[in-house]
Amino acid sequence: MKRSLLLINILIMILFLSGCTKQQNKIYDLNFSMYYNTVNNVKIIATPDNEEKLEEIYQGIDEILLRMDQLFNIQAREEQYKTELMIINDNAGVKPVQVSNEVITVVKKALEIATISEVDGVALFDPTIAPVWDCWNFLDHYYSIYNPITSSIPENIDEYLSLVDYQKVIVDEREQTVFLEIKGMKLDLGGIVKGYVADCIRSYLKQEGFHDAVIDIGKNIILMGKYQGKGWKTSLQTPYIERYSTSQQEQMYYYGRLYLSDKTIVTSGVYEKYIMDENQNEYHHILDPRTGFPIDNNVISVSVITDSSITADGYSTTLLAVGLEKGMEIVAKTTGLEAVYVVRNNDKYEVYISQGLQDQFEFNENVMNIGYEYKGVFSE
Question: Of the four listed, 6, 86, 204, 243, which is most buried by Cβ atoms within 10 Å?
Fold first, then answer.
C-alpha cells in the first residue's frame, strides 16, 4: 500500500464552546491514508494553547497508523512488505515466530474473546477463519448499488474448515512468539485490530494534551471528552438505508442516537459487505466457523458501547454471531458493556437495547415508515 504524502487536509469550523469569550476553541478534521482498506479520520478540538501542535499531531497519528499496518495487515500490497502477521502465517506448521509486544497483546485479546464466543464448544469469533474467508474472495466481489456485481458461491469450503481452530494458536509470552500448529492455518486480526489502533491513538492524544476528540478508524469510533459541554451526538446508521431512498433522506439515515463521552462505539453488521448471487441471495462476510457460510440468525447489526475499543471491536462481531438471546446474556454479565441490536423479524426490523442504555438511547420514529420497531430493553 502506497503511503500518501503527509498533506494535512484540515477543515476548520470555528465553534463557540464557551459563550462570548475572547478565545475560541476550534475543531480540526484530520483525514488519513486508507490503511487496512478503511477510511480513517480524527476530529480534534484544539485550544489556542495547543493548536500550533496540530501538524505534529497529524504526523504522529499517521506514524501510528503506518506502524500498525506494517504489523497486522495480511492483504497483499504493492511494496511486497511482509508484516509480522504475514510471517506468522507463512510459518504455520513450521516454527514459532518472534513478534513485537503489540502483536502478542492483540493475539491474546483475540483468543480471549474467542473463548467468550463459544457455543457448544465452537468459537463463533475465531481469528483463524481466514482460510475459509479467502475462499469467498469478498474483497473483489462485494456487492453494492454502486457496484452491482453478482458472484458464484465457492464450492471448496469444506476443505478449509479443518484449519479453523483458535486453540491451535500458541502464544509464548516468555519467548515472545506466536505459532500456528497446522500448516495452512492463517491468522487474521481484522475483527479486532482496528479497535486496538483507535485505543493507541486515544492514548497518544491524551499524552499530547488533547482530551476532546472523535477517533474513527474504519468505523471503530472513540468519543473523547465532550462537545459543547455535553457528550458527542452519535447516530446509529439505519441498515440498508440506501435501498429505501436514493436521496438518503436525513430523517431515516439513522434509527437511533446516543450522546457519549469517553466511550467507544463499534458496530458489526451484515448489510455493508456481502456477496450477491445470480438469484439475489446475499452472503455477508461474518462467517460461521462450523459451516464456512455466513452466520444466519436474523441479526442485522450490533452496536457495542464500552470503554476499550479493542474490546468493543471483538465483542461486536461476537454478539452478532451468537445471536440476540446469548448476546444479551453476555452483555448482562459483563461490567461496562452495553449493546444495541437490530434483528429481522419477517418484514420488520426490531431494535433492542441493553439495560444500561434505557435512559440514553433515542429512537428515531421516522424509521417506523420503513418497518422499524423499537422494542426497548431486551428481556427473555
Answer: 86
Q: Which amino acid is at 166?
A: Y
Over the stretch 23-57, which tens digit does the pLDDT of each residue have? 578 899 999 977 767 889 999 999 888 888 999 99
Look at residue 115 and tell me whether its pLDDT is greater than 60: yes
pTM: 0.90
Domain of 199 in residue numbering reads as: 1-74+190-218
Q: Cα dist. 238→244, 253, 300, 376 in Å?
A: 10, 5, 10, 17
Report the number of distinct structural domains present in the chain. 3
Same domain, 232 and 167: no
| Contact between residue 233 and residue 259 where contact means Cβ atoms under 8 Å apart | yes
CB neighbours of residue 285 within 10 Å = 19
Return the pLDDT at 21. Answer: 41
Question: Which CATH number belongs to the domain containing residue 358 in this structure?
Answer: 3.10.520.10
Radius of gyration of the chain (CA): 21
Residue 185 falls within a domain, yes or no? no
pLDDT at 377 over 90: yes
Same domain, 101 and 162: yes
| Amino acid at residue number 227 | Y
β-strands 97-98, 177-180 pairing: antiparallel
- Both 235 and 344 in a single domain? yes
**∠ CA 10-13-16, rounded to 5°:** 145
